[in-house]
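Database export, one record per block. Field names are fixed; values are copied verbatim from the stored entry.
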Amino acid sequence: VCSSDLEIFMKRFIAFVCMAILGATALYAQQQNQQILKPIVQYSEIDFCLQLLKNIELKGNEVDALMDIQSVMIRELQIAIKEKKKPEDVSSLELTVVQAQNLLSFLQRSSLTGGLADRYKRFTDAIIASAQTKK
């Protein structure tokens, strides 16, 4: 009877440890997704980015992600207008890690001319730099 009780205890203990590991992993992943990045960008760059996003091709399951990103940027521009900010003034755009990843993914699909490459690079570099400071 003792070995049977020990066997049951060990099985339950192993199951508990596995559940604890899975829970900790899920919690860590959730915290990563909820982390807020704050890239510093000019208001004109936010508007530029919105213009690029208007012309990308999407799959139907990406619509919500795009609209989510656009709403963050539009809200920031509305605040700028309300506060009478200039296009060259800077903002700390607040994006979750997932939103930032989606934004960079969408921007990679955009078509632009060589003359706009510096603006594109400046915007994407700001996002990447904000993510690197979080590590």
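Remark 1: The CA atoms of residues 95 and 125 lie 14 Å apart.
Remark 2: The chain has a mean pLDDT of 86.
End of record.
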